[in-house]
ABC transporter ATP-binding protein
Amino acid sequence: MGNITLNKVSKSFGTTHVIKDIDLAIDHGEFVVFVGPSGCGKSTLLRLIAGLEDVSSGRIMIDGTDATGLAPAKRRLSMVFQSYALYPHMSVRQNIAFPLKMAGNDKAVIDKKVGDAARILNLTDYLDRKPRQLSGGQRQRVAIGRAIVREPEAFLFDEPLSNLDAALRVNMRLEISELHQQLKTTMIYVTHDQVEAMTMADKIVVLQAGRIEQVGSPLDLYKHPANRFVAGFIGSPK
Ligand code: ADP
Ligand code: MG
């Protein structure tokens, strides 16, 4: 479970071709990073996988089933956004419980799953607080908690750390890597930060102008960049 395959996926907005003919295979449990300069199509590609945008052509398979036309909720993927998207008037507990409540789960089930997620994310002592009473890193953990309770086949992260200061970013990077080791769930992580890509990924997908320049492990890309763009991009952290 958690296998995702893209076959010749393209996306246009009007006459603008944003994603061009992408083939990609993501294996169960892999930590895959989409990296590339701003505007290259990373978020769009992630949103296509999530089902938040429809492909213009091509196919998306999830766990061997054609998911191309499937609604986001049916794809069993959880998206974590950079802006947290927490409900300000709800407590941490209510924020994390929200997707379970919407799905009509019993209180006992909700309490158990929220408790488990809070333990994994070190939020147990903060469950009754409101988002505004939390630090940026804690808010990001609540957003991740809300993704965890849905027990997705894959987590999709869109630049989740870009609102955090540098020190906290390093911390959260480690926390997300640890979470991956613990849950062993497929994770797709979008960033424009080469250091995040190199330190977190099992597999890096380098994008430029809607195309894949190269796919490989951090070491592959570092040692054998396919072209000057990859060499320059991976070789020169900002
Ligand atoms: P990235 O996440 O790599 O910065 P995006 O996927 O957000 O890039 O955007 C890729 C390109 O697609 C950009 O040129 C952007 O302006 C364009 N784009 C994204 N979403 C839309 C949309 N809904 N309508 C029109 N153009 C869009
Ligand atoms: Mg983006």
